[in-house]
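[step 3/7] fold_predict: job queued, chain A
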Amino acid sequence: MANSKYEYVKSFEVEDEIMLPNIIIVRIDGRNFCRFSKFHEFEKPNDMKALELMNLCADAVLEKFPDVIFSYGFSDEYSFVLKKTTKFYQRRASKIHSLIVSFFTSVYVTKWKAQFPQKDLRYAPSFRSRVIGCASIEVLQSYLLWRQSECHLNNQYDTCFWQLIKSGKPENEAEEMLKGSLKQDRNELLYQSFNINYKKDIPEIFRQGTCSLRTVEDIVKYKVDGSAVKRCKRKFTRVYSENIASRRFWNDQLCLVKELGQFTEDLSKTKSEYVKSFQYESRLMPSTWIVVRIDGCHFHSFSDVHQFEKPNDAQALNLMNSCAAAVLEEFKDIVFAYGVSDEYSFVLHKGSTLCERHASGIVSGVVSLFSSMYTMKWKDFFPHKEMTCPAYFDGRAVCYPSSEILRDYLAWRQVDCHINNQYNTCFWMLVKLGKSKSDAQNYLKGTQTREKNELLDQLSGIVNYYNTLPPVFRHGSSIYWDKEVNMVDDEEGAAIKSHKIVVVKHCNIIETSFWESHPEILDEKR
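[step 4/7] structure written:
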């Protein structure tokens, strides 16, 4: 396929490889989960079903991604540790953390009903993610000690707080009573006021958090002649420990020692500031347009499994558009989105300070919400199809310094839409007429736009057949805020009122006429 004149925009993409020998951790935590848990009436201070749902999602991540060999989680957060020598997606930070948070989110929505059969999921859960690059096994050990210490301190505080609330204290008074309290003070409060022995009466899952680790089990089978055949079977195991950063716990797990290394000494404490210094945080350049582009992961197989129509499934595209519209409504800094097939590009205005312009926060927030909406809305568009495997996406953020270059980026994506759609339309028409897939590929090899159009006319018997296809297939989808004007009656008679709505259009965004008709989209003075 020929390159377009807009290909130069790819030079603005920045690689974010985590170099060896750094150990990669992906940490996810819930976005606005205080509100989410209150809205869905989770039990306080801990909801066992909600924790089990988080644990099931973490188990699914270990099962899906073989390079993830250890996880640790509590409350609404989880940390995933990849083996030291991983080459997972070329060790690119944005790719790794966005894939994991997207998959985790999709599984969370999928498994919700099994955990909460009496509760409807009333709005989309989403998560943030980031990468921590541990320069040594000692940094990993410090990180795990820090997170488990946070688990203990947060849970102890929350247990005291909610016991006080349940005893009749107002929230501000409970907060004041606990202000500046130490661990021992809280233990005494629980025991003396509520007859609770924190260590004995509070389940370990709440106090210690949950670990899952990948192990290898030798399976021996025998042939007909009696000879033994040994095969390795990978599985994961959940474990609980008072101190996951201790030598005793860690070094007893042979798989962790093999893939990551031994802990050589025990740590009594660590400073969070030290561990945070290893967080891979890319702050995006100020006063530039930010584009978050997400792409479906393994969507060829996903579309085959779910029997999407070829070359285009209108309902699948409508589902993507509905999810993208929901993202615009959630993130007000997004001024425009363009989508085709299984990808979407979201444009944030130049002055955006969303997530303090941290790439990981922006990308993970967008890709997680999109994944959540995709799973939640599936039945709206495919009422007679079950989603048999989670849909998930990867994402990246790229900065463009001027509106002219940004428009060239969007033009590049629309040119790609045309090139891919024209090829796919020819390909699937040939296949449906009896050619094998390999014969269809060979037939189209080296053909230009004019030749493909002539082929479509010939095969369909319709002049200019390609131009008769729905605009959504040929142009992709553009989503933006527009004004809706209505006539309303009030006490003074008829009046015109307008309000902003998100609209989905299928138009030519390469030509200047679209942008001239909607100057507010790329207005740099907002």
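[step 5/7] annotate
The mean pLDDT is 92.
DSSP finds 19 helices and 13 strands in the chain.
exit 0
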